[in-house]
């Protein structure tokens, strides 16, 4: 019998992450297995050592942080394309927003990953500048106006970016937003709302956090001990009006940019420019990239079409944005590689023309 099993858990933690704190309270990192005839001790037997599992528990507010996990990049495959199970590190993911929550178990290379279901998540809300400047209707509009337009223009603290954890910064934005709300007769601008808009804080309810944290802790226990089959693979929870839960199997995409092994397919017109391609990668709910850099191979030579992350290269490649894809040497079925902070490795796309 196993006297003691220790579970090694890799945690990606965020300061103030309420869900991960609940998980830590409800899931112990030490589990005892003993019978009545055996004394517990700190020494691990060989059998116990073989049961040590590594897994990732994730509870992030910002979805893009999930792309930083390199679980997919450490997988090994055999000659037939089957994943080597010894290289798999499971991930348990959970999140809440007010009275809604979800929990999911991801087995990299086997089940659907976060990228497979990325289009189920809405992109971050961004308010049009024309609305902020001319026709504000919500208290959030007033806060965003003070943050995005007044702050860089007036520079109340010099050439310093807004810091949501600095009370002086938050107070200044709150006061300016409150003045603007009075001018447009908008109610609801408070210090708490101001801080929430600046830091993109998602409202949380303790009871919802507890339920989702308990679900995640249970899945961690099942993965660590093999006492039961893990969740397959997505659970949603809603207690805004009564109690509702539903479990379903999210399908794995064969052409997923993270866990798939074939190039992504993109279709454009022959008149589309590189700027159209760039806008599609940023605005599409399938990708939601931040600052993609695009490279390709033309006539056997590597060519950088556009790169935002390096200022000197960005200045040189900026004229390419207004050129048609065909002018840049891209033909039907041409492959391009796109690097972005939202993905741990470059993503290969294949361009087709209508």
UniProtKB/TrEMBL annotation:
One of its GO terms (molecular function) is NEDD8 activating enzyme activity. GO terms for biological process: protein neddylation. The keyword ATP-binding applies. It holds the Pfam family ThiF. Belongs to the ubiquitin-activating E1 family. UBA3 subfamily. The keyword Nucleotide-binding applies. The lineage of its organism: Eukaryota, Metazoa, Cnidaria, Anthozoa, Octocorallia. The active site is at residue 130. It is an enzyme of class 6 (ligase). Catalytic subunit of the dimeric E1 enzyme, which activates NEDD8. PROSITE patterns: UBIQUITIN_ACTIVAT_2. This is NEDD8-activating enzyme E1 catalytic subunit. It comes from Paramuricea clavata.
């Amino acid at each position: 019998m196993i006297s003691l099993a220790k579970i090694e858990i890799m945690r990606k933690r965020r300061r103030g992450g309420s869900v991960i704190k609940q998980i830590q309270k409800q899931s112990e990192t030490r589990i005892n297995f003993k019978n009545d005839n055996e004394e517990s001790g700190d020494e691990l037997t060989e059998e116990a050592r073989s049961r040590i599992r590594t897994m990732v528990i994730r509870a992030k507010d910002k979805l893009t942080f999930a792309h930083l996990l390199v679980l997919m990049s450490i997988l090994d495959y055999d000659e037939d394309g089957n994943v080597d199970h010894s290289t798999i590190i499971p991930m348990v993911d959970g999140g809440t927003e007010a009275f809604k929550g979800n929990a999911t178990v991801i087995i990299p290379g086997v089940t659907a990953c976060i990228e497979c279901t990325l289009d189920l998540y809405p992109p971050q809300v961004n308010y049009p500048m024309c609305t902020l400047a001319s026709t504000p209707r919500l208290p959030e509009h007033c806060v965003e106006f003070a943050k995005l337009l007044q702050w860089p223009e007036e520079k109340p603290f010099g050439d310093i970016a807004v810091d949501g954890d600095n009370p002086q910064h938050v107070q200044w934005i709150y006061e300016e937003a409150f003045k603007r709300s009075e001018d447009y007769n908008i109610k609801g601008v408070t210090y708490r709302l101001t801080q929430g808009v600046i830091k993109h804080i998602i409202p949380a309810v303790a009871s919802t956090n507890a339920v989702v944290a308990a679900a995640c802790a249970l899945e961690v226990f099942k993965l660590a001990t093999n006492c039961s089959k893990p969740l397959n693979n997505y659970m949603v929870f809603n207690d805004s009006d009564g109690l509702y839960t539903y479990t379903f199997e999210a399908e794995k995409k064969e052409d997923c940019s993270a866990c798939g092994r074939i190039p992504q397919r993109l279709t454009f017109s022959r008149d589309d420019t590189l700027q159209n391609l760039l806008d599609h990668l940023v605005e599409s709910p399938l990708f939601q990239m931040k600052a993609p850099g695009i490279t390709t191979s033309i006539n056997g030579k590597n060519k950088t079409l556009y790169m935002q992350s390096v200022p000197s290269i960005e200045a040189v490649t900026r004229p390419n944005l207004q050129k048609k894809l065909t002018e840049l040497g891209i033909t039907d079925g041409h492959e391009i590689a796109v690097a972005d902070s939202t993905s741990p490795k470059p993503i290969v796309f294949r361009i087709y023309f209508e």
